[in-house]
Write a structure and sequence with these properties.
heterodimer, A: about 270 residues, mainly alpha, elongated, B: about 300 residues, 2 domains, about 80% helix, about 0% strand, flat
Chain lengths: ~270, ~300
Amino acid sequence: MTRRSRWLSACGGLLVGLLVAVAALAPWLTPYDPAAIVVEHYHGPERPSAGHPLGTDTLGRDVWARVAYGSRTSLFVGVLAMGLSLVIGVSVGLVSGYFGGAVDATLMWVVDLVLTMPTLLLLIVLSAVLPPSLFTVPLVIGLVGWTTFARTVRGEVLSLRERDYVVAARALGASHGRIIRRHLLPGVLPGVVVLAALGMSGAIAIDAGLSYIGLGVPHPTPSWGRMVSDFQTYLGVAPWLVMVPGLAIALGVVGFNLLGYGLTDLLGTRRS
Amino acid sequence: MAGYLLRRVLRALSTLLGTTLIVFLLVRVVPADPAVSIAGPKADPETLAAIRKDLGLDQPVIVQYARYLTALAHGDLGKSYVTGRRVVDVIAQRLPATALLGVTSLAFGFLLGLGTGMFTAARRGGSWDLGVLLVTLVGLSLPTFWIGNVLLYVFAHRFHLLPLGGYGTARHLILPALTLGLAEFYFYARFVHTNMGEALSADYVRTARAKGVSPVRIYVRHALRNALIPIVTLLGLDIAGLMSGVVLTETVFNWPGLGRLAVQAVFSLDIPLVAGTVLFSATLVLASNLIVDLLYGVIDPRVQRG
């Protein structure tokens, strides 16, 4: 069990590390600007070659440069969206689980409500309604994706608040805020780490879907999902323009997922 | 039983009311002026004012919400700003395509997933568990729209076996249904594998085995029946996920369903149409969850007390 989990999280960590490294080192990994036209005489998209390892696209831009810089967009959106979901979800979960009663019922009703809304449709509407900017997409993904955090944290708090040290703290007259921050929050953090990894994969996947539909980060920021939709028309003549960004999305999502599942197992065995 | 039924129905209704509020608020914060959307950017102020009055936009927000709810209660979702057609009619026209795609891929993914999960659960432990985990994890991580493109490339561009997109014949349905069905397949295969595995390791299975019950009977009567109860819940919850997949798949294959409709409506800022499709999908999800809840009460009497 533990060996398998270590192996899984190591694979996930490797993929995530690769993604972060490409994002951080993009300017050194490619001499080209992702938005620049690098082909001197344009004869349509060029196949992968020594000068352009992943070829060039229908506007004569270097595909590798666009994929490499695109990793920055994915990570940016992922981290921001996941961070927002995390803050909202953990707060709601802590408050809901600790206070119980009417507070809990109301908050869980809201959770149910958000879960019932068809996520992608809601996101499409939100991102179309709000003015387009680099922050719109992470904002809407974060605003819609916090329910899992809330449910899981609430569940953990329900068992934590009956523990002796929490009961003792309450008996000693500690304030609600202090009990939540000092005694409950540290207890739910390990589970939150797992959720954060899974949340990253979810946010990257949803961002890719939104970009594919045409509602992602605005031009000219390179985005993997948009690359797939931009070049679907050329699928027959230049398939690599679609395959490469799709694979990049898949690797990113798989990486964070593996990391999350591996960590679930690791933390699970440690607890038992 | 009656109390349980009533509680569930009331809860679903309260969620539905909340959904209408969210949709209403979303529609209200749209920066585009509906009057301009209808009359065009060159319309004179009197025309715009007349349209606003006609739509009730000059009234207080709370009155507008009340009017919106009253209209909804009469099954009126408003008229499209762009075509002037009734939103209900447009949705009714697009629904069959989405239903066809959704039901086909769900049936395909569910049945194949069930079969695969049952097969692998019988061989559970060690490398089979890891295999199922890895394959389903990678499968679920692949973006739907990208799978659609890969299938398009192989079957339409390379070997010219199937059409590039569109709607009408069974040949048009194969690739979209496969794209959407694959995700469903991984989802159910993993779930059935895990649940069957747990059921097969349970005490009552060991007891049955000790009593000398035949392996097939144990598998079907003892393990499968118990393992399948949670799947009912999953099917209900999955409808929401299916809607997201539908939007993307319909976009890839230019499938004339509700998802494509919603995306087009958003881009043309056709607010009543957007609100209508979102509300319709949410109601669909709510209804399927309610049916599942009620079924669950019938299948598993313990639930009623919860």
